Amino acid sequence: MAQLPPEQLHSMAEAFGDDTAYRVVGQGSMTFSGWDTDASRAARGLLAAGVQPGDRVTIHLEAPNALRWMIAYAAIHRAGGVALPQNPQLTRPEVERMLDHSGAVVALVEESLADRYPDDRPVVVVAVPPAGDAAQPGGDPLPGPHWDQLLDQDPGYFQVAREPGDLADILYTSGTTGHPKAVAVRHDNSSLVPFKRPQWSGGGWLPASPPYTFAGLSFVYTPMKLGLQGIYLPRFDAGTWLDTVESDRPGFVFLVPAMATLLLEHPRFDTADLGSVVQCTVGSAPLSPRVLERLQEKMPDALVSNNYGMTEAGSVYCLMPPGEAVKRPGSVGKPLAPAEIVCVDGDGVGVAPDEVGHVRMRIPGRPREYYGDPEATARTWVDGWLVTGDLGKLDRDGYLYIVGRSKDVIIRGGNNIHPTDVEHAVASHAAVREVSVLGVDHPVLGEDVVAFVVLAPGSVADADELRDHTLGLVARYKVPRQWYFVDELPRNATGKVVKDRLRDLLPPAAVDPGESSATVSGPRWPTAAA
To answer: φ, ψ for residue 412 (rounded to 5)?
Structure first.
């Protein structure tokens, strides 16, 4: 039985060659046969460009170029290389850091991004045309090889021999707290979904996360393993998403919380036909219970859940059985075997059910590590357990609740406050679209609680109203005393709020011990839903 994902792709091409493997909304589609053939061509092209087994190869393409992205990803593995997905928003200094750190030898780069690759780095830049354009754009051609040359090779099946434990990918984390770290992914810990040639259902799976993220990358091969067609939305738009679900009838969809919020606000949400959906997973960040409940009301027969996972954990997922999400507001579900999750105190000893502790997780025998950073690896993986940095609790039935990051705990007057608890309380107000809570220095209490609020379109609410509402749901010491109203929250590509960027908006008066509120003007943040 085939083990490596490119071998699995070839098996699918042999069985279902003329079926559509992936469709990118607005950009076209490719069959399993086309994907398989082009991946072998490009793999031979990479060898001609100098790639040897174990060499690192960057993929740096815009989201609409997803079809070429998937061909490139399979081709790198077929050439025996290691894939390095890159965010198109990276600046030149960030690209230089990652090139230096990874030692990449070849970069597959969209033509519009080629100026971010300096000439003094020993990396071969292969220019890739934009989505929907098979030829070079006008102007002088870029130096070095071109995507068309990469594909000008023998189309026969090709695979460099690799072992399951060999390095497959290097994924740079989202970096909400500083420079991203590089997570090493091996072929045998890239997915929990085993391969067996499935029955072809013709059904669809609709993700919308960028393929360079952990969530997005996991959807490259997962649909085919389940006998499904991938339907990819390269730029999230709530109206287009609703149109796609109604026309393509996918059974499985994946969203991040920002996307879910935009869907609920769309004027067609209440009347749209979402009856094809049997599983709606929202991941990458905590989801307001109110939003989850509305999704479940709209799709009463679907499994709707707020999933939990992270790049370092690999294939450790929590899943929510049907009907449980509404019964257990705030839970992200139970770990999917063979994964294990525990909550421990500061000494590493397990805490009692319903008691908050530090979340640790593992898949026995399949840990990941940080590439080229043994010290960070030793701090993050302890005795086989991943130290997540999250705080959470397990109830008596084994359901996990994430209450925040350990670094985000606010200690106000000696009381520990978990921002997620406060955020859920504030977000339950009908006028609130989104909220992020953080702590600021206070001369007497040590820290005070600050809320950044985005109001729902057309809604009106002030700090006094939100304060009174929150007082009815959480203890008084948890209620924010400073309220800032903003147009949107800054997010990284995975949909997580970058709280350090919110701190940059705080005026010096933010440490005032009194209660206050203000409207803060800031930059238009690039968001996951943009």
So the answer is: -110, 110
